[in-house]
Amino acid sequence: EKLNAFKLNLFSTTSSSLCSAAGPVLCSEFINAGADTSLTTLQWIMANIVKHPHIQAKLFAEIKAVVGEGAEEIKEEDVQKMTYLKAVILETLRIHPPSTFLVPHAVSEDAELLGYRVPKDTTVNFVISLMGRDPKEWENPMEFRPERLLNRGENGEPDRVSDVTAYKMMPFGSGRRLCPGKRLALLNLEYFVSNLVWNFEWKPVDREGVDLSVKEVFLMVVKNPLRAHVHVSKNQMKA
Ligand code: HEM
């Protein structure tokens, strides 16, 4: 309890006092909550990219359209222009959020949810791993189709990623306890995935395919770690 109270104080203190007094606790908190979740998600994304060559090709084409031929590294500012990349990452988080549950939440006053009465102080758990696969919300939910998360741009405007992560799927939670690392995590994933696809061509190992079975070890991880043939991309050979 003391530690939790301390952590709460941490988030409300000024950055200068954070640096001097509470920096190490904040850092370890962020490393614990941020490392495995990000790494697990990266594995799921790459597994889906290897399994679906047409998605890898479309991603490569988008990257090329943004950076042009011969670029060595995809930079932070480049990924902001890559809408399909963002949709691939979100589509992965829809089907494979690393966490099954959110941390338990509670209602601070009597509430009604979908016809159910939820009395004040009741603990509410969200099974986010099922939300993204709900056939009432998602057509053919187990199909990996990033396009479903894109809104077509009108009057020549570029496509946009639909903002569904707060209600139809919640890989980062929602509300005031929303994952504070959400933006950092997405940026990291966008950076890694774009560079991995730009610099290498990923193919499944012959006859093995890609196994998307899940293993629950606190997080929902890839049961049989991804094995793939990795080739230096033609683009980099030319460069
Ligand atoms: C793909 C990567 C990540 C996913 C899917 C993820 C997901 C989540 C989820 C579901 C929660 C619970 C939110 C809720 O109950 O409403 C959470 C909390 C948290 N996350 Fe993340 N996270 C990721 C990356 C990160 C990173 C990179 C950091 C830090 C740098 C981070 C720091 C935290 C912290 C400190 C909490 C606790 C917040 C609180 O209790 O109020 N996470 N995350």
From TrEMBL:
Keywords for the protein's UniProt record, in alphabetical order: Heme, Iron, Membrane, Metal-binding, Monooxygenase, Oxidoreductase, Signal, Transmembrane, Transmembrane helix
Give the top-rank taxon of the lineage listed in the UniProt record for this protein: Eukaryota
Q: Keyword Iron on this protein?
A: yes
Query: What compartments host this protein?
Result: Membrane
State the needed cofactors, names only: heme
Q: Which PROSITE patterns match?
A: CYTOCHROME_P450
Residues noted as binding heme in the record, renumbered to the chain: C179
Q: Describe its membrane topology.
A: Single-pass membrane protein
Sample GO molecular function, one term: heme binding
What Gene Ontology cellular-component terms does the record carry?
membrane
Its primary localisation, in coarse terms, equals membrane
Which is an annotated Pfam family here? Answer: p450
Which family is this protein grouped under? Belongs to the cytochrome P450 family.
Q: What is this protein identified as? A: Cytochrome P450 89A2-like
Q: Which organism is it from?
A: Juglans regia (English walnut)
